[in-house]
Amino acid sequence: MRVKRWAADLLLAAACVAGLMLLSFLLIDFQFNTNDDTGMIGILNGSYTGTPDGHAIFMQYPLAWLISMLYRTGIEICWYVVVLMGICILAMISVLFRLLRRLPEHRPLAAAGFLAAVAGLWLGNLLNFTFTTCGAFVAGMTVLTFALQTREEDLRPGFLANVLVLLVCAYCIRSFFCLAAVAFLGVIWLGKYAREMFSRPRCWLIPLAGLICLGAAAGIHEYAYRDWDDYFAYNLDRVYLQDYDRFPSYSEHEAFLQSLGYDADSYYAVSHYDYGLLESFQPEDIHALADYVRAQEQPESLMKTAKRSLKQAIAYYIPDDLSAITPLQAASFLLPAALLLLSLMLSWRDRRGYLLWALLLLAAVGCCWLFIGYRGRNPERISYSLRILTVTGALAGLAMQLVIRPVPLPDGSRVRLLSLALAAALALTGAASFLSLRAQRGAPDDTTMEYLSYIAQHPDNIYIRETRSTQISRRLLSEFPRTSVNVIASGSWTAYTPLYEEKLEAMGLEELNRDTVFRENVYLITREDYSLQQIFGVSEDTPVEYDVIEQFDDGIQILDIHSIG
């Protein structure tokens, strides 16, 4: 009977999650929200060098290698999305399965409540896809999965392996949020085993197994990138300058910039990410610029740093427009407050340490936001990801109270009826959120990636894309096209990697510079309103002869394909 109940719970959890996600993919436009994802897909599926490669840079190597191997079986399937969404689905099934086990007499309530939470809080982020929010979601679900397990389940091989697999997957997708989740997992582990840490030494197998698995994944990653030290040093300085907008002003630092060989026009190209077409540019220039900027910075006192970080973290956490707050944003306020209130009530009633664990979880949340505030950069996807972790961390704290000292729920026909009514209400709430998301997203836009399809139809040509003309792919999963091996950006985070030389060789180029675009079979892709002189790093008075041979309009911006000279 116990085995049948276990199998029934697992089957119900899988059916509910699979049904919701299938419906989502059929009815709501799936899209990538950052160019980083499409860039990694190009490396993984072989579009970048001609051969699938696991060096996706932002993603840890073990998972990236697996995805690249899947691409070797067929380019028609976007294995990047299949694998990452598959991990998200596995994480959701893991949580719902444990929730069903905790509420065996109230399965409809458990299933409807969880699916409503997914539809209302997380579905929008999953369908507005980035590897960052995906990694945060898997990390959060790992925390919630562990919180919903009993101590008896923790050391069962199947349950422990499930948590470890999710943890390693979260680490491989986006390491920062996995490491943040480790703090949450540590608090939950203490909440479960603090009173028997030394009387029951087997409980130490859980963190030990986690550290071994994460250490193995990190070791494989480091070994795979053992020859990339020069690139990572360059990329670290590039991020420092580019992502944090720290390029020095030419008018204020003209003497230094001229010493590097740049006039105002060529420096504009460098500072706007189009240095790939400049003959005078060398990666060492990025190091020189970064060192120069660091030398200009005034040292900041520890107290001032703390105040600035706190102020920035609060600004990131509290939305500017409270009238337009989303369900996820609201939950990131309400659930931590609910966790604190419940812990205060239980601590007052039972005189036990509920409050301590709640405060530790909330401290872990605060540290995540403070770290982002300290770094001083908050892309929208980072804010979404931190809110996902905030919400799941608070839910894990509430779940921990339920598991450690379960609250008995009455049974009977009236209670079942009430449970079904509440389940229906939660399901309707989730459906309303689902429909609202569909209305916001609208129908799929099939025009965004047409220019890549055009390029793929002309494999004998070479196309150089101005960096900021990268498009967000908005095609449905089954229609995502292959990025062509014959297109390269004039500057990107993939430039000057060990793969970069392979990319140029696959395109039949020895090097990429301004003269390259004057070759007969080479074309330049830019936005319609973008100056070709700015890309070439020359003055606006310099004539550039060109013909626009093709134009693509996706409703957001217009892209032109130019024949130069």
Structural features, described:
With 565 residues, the protein is mainly alpha-helical. The protein contains 22 helices and 7 strands. The strands form 2 sheets. Strands 4-3-5-7-6 form a 5-stranded mixed β-sheet, with helices on one face. The chain has a two-stranded parallel sheet with strand order 1-2. β6 and β7 (558-564) form a beta hairpin. α4 (79-102) runs parallel beside α6, α5 (107-127) packs parallel to α19 and α8 (157-173) runs antiparallel to α9 (175-193).
Helix/strand class:
mainly alpha
Distance between the termini: 78 Å
Write down the secondary-structure element order: HEHHHHEHHHHHHHHHHHHHHHEEHEHEE
- CA radius of gyration: 26 Å
Q: Tell me the number of strands.
A: 7
Quickly count the helices.
22
Summarize the main sheet: 5 strands, mixed
The helix content is 55-70%
Rounded mean pLDDT is 84
Spatial shape: globular
Beta-strand content estimate? 5-15%
Task: Indicate the low-confidence ranges by residue numbers.
Answer: 443-447, 476-480
In spatial order, strands of the major sheet run 4-3-5-7-6
Identify the notable features of this structure and list them briefly.
565 residues, mainly alpha, two-stranded parallel ribbon, 22 helices
